[in-house]
Nuclear transport factor 2 family protein (Pontivivens ytuae), 138 residues
Amino acid sequence: MTPSDVVRRFWQTMATNDFAAASRLLSPDYRGYWPQSRELIEGRENFIRVNADYPAEGRWRFTLRQLVAGDPDVVTEVDVTDGVMQATVVTFHRVERGEIVHQLEYWPDPFDAPPWRAPFVRLSDRPESMGGAAGEPL
């Protein structure tokens, strides 16, 4: 499998909510880092627990908005929801020997546009030309 195949399979498996199965696409010495909170997830078991123990309101659903393929690095933009909470995650994946060895994830918060920019912009849904507008439900 190419690195992009591994990452696509990872998100497809995450969509089953079987985090143990998703962890099998990670290397045994996997490391995931969330820079905004400075949290480092080390190993498959911690990956499983941090996902399985999250206080969700329902099953997680994932929509792949964009996948930028490289070798060994792949970047994805994914919308995540449990039916109540909605978020977007931008993930930088490093894939080696068919396994994800590390992920750097940004979970940006949406915000209202500041009034000072109003003369220069218009509010809009995501333009088709920006890629990933419809997304790929997984």
Observations:
- The beta strands are 26-34, 39-42, 61-68, 73-81, 86-96, 99-106, 136-137.
- The first strand starts at residue 26 and ends at 34.
- Helices lie at 3-14, 19-23, 44-52.
